[in-house]
Design a protein that fits this description.
The protein is 52% helix and 12% strand. By secondary structure, it is mostly helical. The strands form 2 sheets. A 3-stranded antiparallel β-sheet has the order 1-2-5, with no helix packed on it. It has a two-stranded antiparallel ribbon with strand order 3-4. The chain starts with 5 loop residues before the first helix and ends with a strand. The structure holds protoporphyrin IX containing FE.
Length: 235
């Protein structure tokens, strides 16, 4: 729950912070990826980074969370938190990474609001960040504990490919080894990384019309509703 000290500060600064998300976000990601380039190649999807809306999801959701704390004291936006936690758990986000995100996000906020920010404002928003982060970390711990195995990535193979419209194929995947598969829940998402080992990919041509052949394993890019066997569509 938001403290009595922070509540009026958040109420007063929400419109300003909300209106600056678009400027804070690119600064945050350039700081984050400069300090941790591995996150861009192993975790965040490059195509999502090119989309402004998706880029703003993280910082924007903190402003939305703050709005909820102000308007519905004593409660948390459970559905939103659950959706984010499932997405994070599908990507293997870890607790120490929350400190990394905090540092770069708050450096970007401090720079953008340099002329108006005070220690009270920074403290109140830090409280909001960690209320949200702690709620997500707790949910993600529960999701990791419920997994049928302790591995982040397990090998799956293509069981079937079917045409799904112009330039699209639907892949049906099944486990490629004996690692126990976590039963899917309605809210579950899964992340996939793929490498193409077809003759055409090896020779450098494109595996599908209009799709560049990746040089190696891709960063996690697609999420699918988790079913077993799983299917996803490639364009
Ligand atoms: C309080 C802190 C955080 C908040 C509020 C937050 C919020 C979000 C939101 C709203 C999404 C989009 C979810 C959706 O697709 O429905 C998201 C996705 C994601 N988050 Fe977080 N997040 C936080 C911390 C982190 C941390 C610590 C990491 C790891 C470095 C991380 C990595 C990601 C990644 C990789 C995605 C997928 C985006 C993509 O595909 O490019 N997040 N997060």
């Amino acid at each position: 729950m938001l403290s009595d000290k922070s509540r009026p500060v958040i109420e007063a600064t929400l419109p300003l912070v909300g209106s600056r998300i678009g400027a804070i976000t690119p600064n945050f990601y350039s700081r984050l990826f400069a300090a941790h380039p591995e996150l861009l190649d192993g975790l965040f999807s490059r195509s999502n980074q090119r989309s402004g809306d998706q880029q703003q999801a993280l910082a924007g959701s903190i402003a939305t969370f703050a709005t909820h704390l102000v308007n519905h004291p004593g409660t948390l936006p459970e559905t939103v938190l659950s959706r984010i936690a499932h997405r994070h758990a599908s990507l293997g986000i870890t607790e120490p990474q929350y400190q990394v995100v905090y540092e770069h996000l708050f450096a970007a906020i401090a720079e953008d609001l340099a002329e108006v920010i005070t220690p009270e404002i920074a403290e109140a928003w830090t409280e909001v960040y960690w209320l949200m982060a702690d709620a997500l970390i707790k949910l993600e711990k529960g999701l990791y504990a419920a997994q049928a195995n302790s591995k982040m990535w397990t090998p799956w193979k293509v069981a079937a490919k079917t045409a799904a419209g112009a330039g699209s194929l639907t892949f049906t995947l099944e486990p490629a080894d004996d690692t126990p598969v976590t039963p899917a829940l309605p809210a579950s998402t899964s992340a996939s990384r793929s490498s193409f080992r077809t003759a055409s990919a090896r020779s450098g041509s494109t595996p599908f019309p209009g799709t560049p052949a990746p040089a190696g394993p891709s960063p996690p890019s697609s999420t699918t509703a988790a079913r077993s066997p799983r299917s996803c569509t490639a364009r």
